[in-house]
Amino acid sequence: MLERGRTLATPVLRAAVERLAPPMDTVAAYHFGWIDAEGRPAHGDSGKAVRPALALLSAEAAGRAPEVGIPGAVAVELVHNFSLLHDDLMDGDEQRRHRDTVWKVYGPEQAILVGDALFALANEILLELGTVEAGRATRRLTTATRKLIDGQAQDISYEHRERVTVEECLEMEGNKTGALLACAVSIGAVLGGADDRTADILEAYGYHLGLAFQAVDDLLGIWGDPEATGKQTWSDLRQRKKSLPVVAALAAGGEASERLAEILAADAKLSDAQLADFDEEEFASRAALIEEAGGREWTSQEARRQHATAIEALDRVDMPAEVRAQLVALADFVVVRKR
Amino acid sequence: MLERGRTLATPVLRAAVERLAPPMDTVAAYHFGWIDAEGRPAHGDSGKAVRPALALLSAEAAGRAPEVGIPGAVAVELVHNFSLLHDDLMDGDEQRRHRDTVWKVYGPEQAILVGDALFALANEILLELGTVEAGRATRRLTTATRKLIDGQAQDISYEHRERVTVEECLEMEGNKTGALLACAVSIGAVLGGADDRTADILEAYGYHLGLAFQAVDDLLGIWGDPEATGKQTWSDLRQRKKSLPVVAALAAGGEASERLAEILAADAKLSDAQLADFDEEEFASRAALIEEAGGREWTSQEARRQHATAIEALDRVDMPAEVRAQLVALADFVVVRKR
Asked: Which Gene3D superfamilies match (chains A, B) (predicted)?
């Protein structure tokens, strides 16, 4: 199912990226893993392709051919990658998908420019369809993009705050991850002529799927295997991310929770450079405290709760049984994945 | 006319910006000059407002009330300011409209994020109208935005190249300035139901107006009065901009042209920091060579040529005489302005 999304969407995505003026076409091709930093063809990891898969299933959920969802799949993937390019720069992330990030290879200017270009291209791909449905799809995509940006703004501001509530964290993650997955799973249906009620229910599935996805991401951000995730060990702790395991551990109370709060308060007084100088054990002991305070277990349960809520939404809309089964399978994949 | 654009569009623009999640709403309000860096209400310079004025005249050119153009005026202004936020960061510009730029006050992250948010908001403002015309207007705005980004990519790459032809420079400036002015002057008409032919002719006026505007900007970027422009003295020379006066001087041949080429080739070997250490006289002597080689005069003539081409386009579309007179007056203003 993920493979189908990739196979159908990638040629259209590549053709879209080729419209960019040089050197942005090259920079984007590197980001997507199609070429290496020397410009040679590559078959790099271009991501899990969950969003394109959802967009094609979305068209099928509305009783249409999966191909109807292709422009939606491409547009959502372009917006997703626009946000990765900008977020990696803002967060100072040097690695993505086991390779140096764009700002690291081509400089911050290209990361900004190519991100902007992918965002514009996403709207262009949809609007050049010239249909009423395309206008509706673009409106939903725009709303999702605004939420994505709101979520990144919240994420950044939370890194500098001592306390973030679990509710604030969930709101941020809903914006940052839920909104675009919601759009992915409604956009194919909207392009296929589905009404707003159907699109809204599909979005509810996608939103909760996104929260499940993000809860798992937060677990991988602390306890993930760097070989599998392509990120540094303890990457979220290195970046002071107030992710779900952290905020849940801080909210839990008790000895480990209080000890964690003291350590993070002391960390807050350190510069990023000082934090970067910590050795592995320092981060390992923080992770152990988060786990002891129950942050790891709570986040696992939260992933399962969001997974269940996502599945429940599917019962409120008529769709072919095969499509429903695939949406369930995709939700199952999201909570068990290791990368 | 400029005042009317500002008066009608600003309340809608402010309401749009208030939708942004904190702290982006504050950062955007600072950028537009509505508050100062301490958050106190201000009445800063929020730009010349040429684009909103054009969008309202555009609606009138199609025989509609100026108010029909307001969402277009706001959307174009949002895209323009998205590009300013990102360009100032990429170019390292520390001052705009006599105040510190956003990246300087709030940091690069906020400049990236708020730029992204304004871009998304522009599409949102148009698409929530929910009409077929809004879809067409958004498509034109998206095309213009892509050109704007292409132009910035060209501008950046030209700074690192020894030779740029006059044609390349005009293409870059057409993308960077012409495309969005073209969109401003068609968007109100499109929202008012004008056909594509009318919109295309209005865009031709706007495109050449943009090239005239940019030629004047290039003159001001070298010989402008810092008090009036709000920029540093010789600001384009400090940034190695291959602007029209420079490329025209290099293309002219002759003694001053060759001497200039030698100096710029030597400059190219210096770091940005070394160039920043130059004193005023160093830049003044470069400016004098550009003028001696004819780059200043050629650019002045080019502004007049583009102005004439813009006015000619207006003859190909039926519009109220009063609207035509205002479009002519606006073109006249663009070429004589000092800031």
From this structure: Farnesyl Diphosphate Synthase (1.10.600.10)
Is B128 within 8 Å of A139 when comparing Cβ atoms?
yes
ipTM confidence score = 0.93
Picking from B112, B134, B142, the nearest residue to A112 by CB comes out as: B112
Least confident span in A230-234, A236-240, A331-335: A230-234
Contacts of B109 (CB under 8 A, 6+ apart): A90, A156
Q: Which of B81, B113, B143 to mutate to test the interface with A (most CBs of A within 10 A)?
A: B113
A145 touches chain B (CB under 8 A): yes
Q: Which two tokens stand for residue A88?
A: 């990696």
How far apart CA B142 and CA B150 sit, in angstroms, is: 12
Cβ proximity of B271 and B295 under 8 Å: no
Single-letter amino acid code for the residue at A19: R
> Is A149 part of the contact surface with chain B (CB cutoff 8 Å)?
yes
% residues pLDDT > 90 (chain A): 83
| Residues of B with Cβ-Cβ distance to A90 under 8 angstroms | 108-109, 112-113
- What is the predicted pLDDT for the residue at B96? 87
Give first-to-last CA distance, chain A, whole Å.
17
Q: A78-93: string of b/e by CB count within 10 Å (b at 16+)?
A: bbbbbbbbbbbbbbeb
Question: Which of the following CATH numbers is that of domain B2-336: 3.10.560.10, 1.10.600.10, 3.40.50.620, 1.10.10.10?
Answer: 1.10.600.10
pLDDT digits (tens, 9 = 90+) for B10-30: 999 999 999 999 999 999 999
B113/A134 touch (CB, cutoff 8 Å), yes or no: no
